[in-house]
DNA sequence: TTATGTTCTTAACCCTGCCTTAACCCCCGC
DNA sequence: GCGGGGGTTAAGGCAGGGTTAAGAACATAA
């Protein structure tokens, strides 16, 4: 869910935008002039500010400049009918992050707001299996939110296994994933596999690693003890 | 100085852009097809990727999707002649941060690249993290209003870390921030890092610096006591 | 000019954690 | 009993990061 501040004096347009944002699960405050905008910005923290340039009491460029001088670096999208190059450059110059010319499609505004908002909430690619979660960047593994300490190589192995989602992965593939071309020529894989298993049980992961003799390893949630 | 990857198969246009970027003090690599782009992206770290959609071998949307799956969240600007709404939405959907329709003014491209790189935070005069505050002009660092004595280099390092807001900053980026092109060839960074840490704890800052082995340093407020 | 202090660089050293290696163990089929 | 596929454990080496101290470079003030 994103928190947005909309600064727009055209109440009709503002209403449209507010309705549209609501459908997209965004929480939105609305200011109809520049002074009000600075008050909102000082009182709250937003993910994005959508800022019209032609405003009563204090124009959008000044608002943007003002909040930047305050030390606030919330992403700002300028919204205006002026499409001349120098207008746009002026906007970026005052510290805007994007500049959208009216008229625009609502879907595009939403897409741009999303792009600016998501950049800071570092939502990156995640892999899942059972109750474990791998984050690619930064390289972190978690089980139910609690981080597991993994070395680079064991992390690589686990990533490979999780990608296979329970299908068995041949030894060569694991070796390739962990070392690339030049693999060590001893039982290093066995050792790292052992470390990985220990780490998983220690972290109380509901997944564990089994081996299909002669064919490789796979993840499972079955308990299979007995 | 910003590092940019330009992916564009029209060599004439690419040349123009490269010339223009050079004037703006940007260091630019150029890939003429999608596969080459992914190789560049894996081998280097960029501040922004400028990505044409119509490319030989692998189209821009796929390139963008691919680098996002790699866990790389470098800002991407899509560059294309297609101006239909659904084209734009497709771009944002694949993880693009901006979408610019050809033909465009060079100055606008540069402005947008700057906005995505680090222009936003360089427009700001105050940076904050936990209870510490950096003022850019004049160069002052404070914790809860009390100034911390920092040398120019340690100040630069801290600024870089605070800008990242807890995300990890690779060593090269810190070196670049502190020294620019000609870095000293010893363990100077380690030493300055040490001074910085000492200064922070001495000033009772609630933030401290941790290292992610092999990947760089980051700020945190965690107490990490056992 | 000398004296003083700050900052930056270099080098040596320590410490920790990771990776590899090499044993050894267990189980099973022959 | 023996051999092979796995599993387990411990020892050693190496690299990355952290620490400390000494000297060079630089600026400022007397």
Structure description:
Two copies of one chain form a homodimer. With 226 residues, chain A is an alpha/beta fold. The first copy, chain A, has two domains: 115 residues, Rossmann fold (3-Layer(aba) Sandwich), CATH 3.40.50.2300; 95 residues, Orthogonal Bundle (Arc Repressor Mutant, subunit A), CATH 1.10.10.10. Chain A is built from eight helices and eleven strands. Chain A has a five-stranded parallel sheet, with helices on both faces. Chain A has a four-stranded antiparallel sheet with strand order 6-7-8-9, with helices on one face. The two termini of chain A are 46 Å apart. The model of chain A has no long low-confidence stretch (mean pLDDT 91). Chain B binds a DNA duplex (30 and 30 nucleotides) through helix 8.
Short précis:
The structure is a homodimer of 226-residue chains. The first copy, chain A, has 2 domains: 3-117, 3-Layer(aba) Sandwich (Rossmann fold); 126-220, Orthogonal Bundle (Arc Repressor Mutant, subunit A), CATH 1.10.10.10.
């Amino acid at each position: 869910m994103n928190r947005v501040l909309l600064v727009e004096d055209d109440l009709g347009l503002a209403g449209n935008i507010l309705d549209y944002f609501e459908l997209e699960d965004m929480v939105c405050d609305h200011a109809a002039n520049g002074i009000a905008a600075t008050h909102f910005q000082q009182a709250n923290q937003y993910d994005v500010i959508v800022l019209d340039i032609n405003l009563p009491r204090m124009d959008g460029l000044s608002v943007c400049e003002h909040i930047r001088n305050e030390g606030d670096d919330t992403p700002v999208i300028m919204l205006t009918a002026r499409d001349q190059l120098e207008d746009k450059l002026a906007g970026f110059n005052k510290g805007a992050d994007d500049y959208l010319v009216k008229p625009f499609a609502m879907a595009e505004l939403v897409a741009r707001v999303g792009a600016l908002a998501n950049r800071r909430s570092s939502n990156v690619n995640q892999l899942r299996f059972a109750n474990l979660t791998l984050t690619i960047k930064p390289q972190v593994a978690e089980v139910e939110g609690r981080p597991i300490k993994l070395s680079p190589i064991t992390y690589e192995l686990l990533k490979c296994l999780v990608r296979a989602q329970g299908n068995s992965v041949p030894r060569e593939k694991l070796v390739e994933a962990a070392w690339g071309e030049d693999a060590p020529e001893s039982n290093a894989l066995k050792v790292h596999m052992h470390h990985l298993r220990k780490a998983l049980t220690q972290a109380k992961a509901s997944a564990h690693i089994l081996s299909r003799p002669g064919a490789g390893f796979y993840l499972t949630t079955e308990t299979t003890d007995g």
